[in-house]
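hiii so um. not sure if this is the right channel but i have a protein structure encoded as tokens and i wanna go backwards to a sequence. like what aa goes where. can anyone help
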């Protein structure tokens, strides 16, 4: 099951920082309500989709259906990457990966029409899955088991290609974990198993599914760290702005925040 302690600790830390900034006594619940209000409908709906997939993944895990758990958790991460893209428009628009997004509509439309691979390319270029946040214990286990796992999940690759995979994993484990999740999620297509010659009825597949499920939550932690960094940077900017504004203007800002919090509580 997803360990929420680190997430809760991050939430409490950000709540304290925001409370200090606004000189208000905010609860974590109030902070969450303000967060949803700030997201807007599209991003909030995507975030709720992320939570739905995550809960479904946990139900699959509890039932011992680890492959299905991988599918659901990978979809949760894909939705979370879409939220992150919509939250980081200025950064995303300046990188080459964005030029490969499908469609010609608004930025929001292009993000919503993008596929998992496009999100991975953006995450890779912008460093959204920081490898220094990957658990060293998990990384050691992954590197040790990687050759066998690669042989099971990528049976058509040559030994040289698998060696290159392992080297890429050692060099940038965060983003390579995400690529493994994408590969597993794509096995939702039945013909893909046959085309890639992956054996479905094996004990190794169950073991690999369990391990990749663990990897999925490591990727989730990395993304949460990225969201935390973005939120912290936003609070720092707001703190600087607070010092530059006249007291009466800042008072209006505080009153608006209080009004938003009250309206969210009444829903």
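sure thing!! here u go:
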């Amino acid at each position: 099951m997803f360990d929420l302690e680190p997430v809760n600790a991050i939430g409490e830390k950000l709540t304290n920082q925001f409370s200090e900034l606004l000189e208000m006594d905010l609860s974590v619940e109030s902070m969450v309500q303000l967060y949803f209000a700030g997201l807007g409908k599209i991003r909030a709906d995507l975030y709720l989709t992320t939570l739905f997939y995550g809960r479904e993944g946990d139900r699959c895990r509890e039932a011992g259906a680890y492959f299905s758990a991988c599918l659901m958790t990978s979809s949760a991460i894909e939705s979370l990457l879409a939220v992150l893209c919509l939250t980081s428009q200025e950064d995303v628009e300046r990188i080459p990966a964005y030029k490969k997004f499908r469609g010609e509509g608004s930025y929001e439309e292009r993000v919503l029409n993008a596929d998992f691979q496009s999100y991975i390319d953006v995450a890779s270029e912008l460093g959204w899955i920081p490898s220094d946040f990957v658990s060293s214990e998990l990384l050691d286990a992954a590197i040790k088991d990687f050759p066998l796992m690669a042989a099971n999940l990528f049976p058509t690759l040559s030994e040289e290609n698998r060696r290159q995979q392992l080297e890429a994993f050692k060099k940038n484990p965060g983003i390579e974990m995400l690529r493994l999740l994408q590969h597993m999620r794509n096995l939702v297509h039945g013909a893909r198993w046959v085309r890639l010659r992956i054996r479905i009825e094996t004990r190794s597949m169950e073991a690999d599914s369990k391990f990749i499920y663990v990897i999925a939550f490591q990727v989730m932690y990395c993304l949460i760290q990225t969201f935390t960094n973005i939120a912290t940077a936003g609070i720092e900017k707001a703190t600087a702005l607070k010092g530059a504004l006249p007291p009466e203007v800042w008072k209006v800002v505080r009153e608006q925040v209080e009004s938003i919090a009250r309206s969210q509580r009444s829903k």
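oh and The two ends are 30 Å apart (CA to CA).
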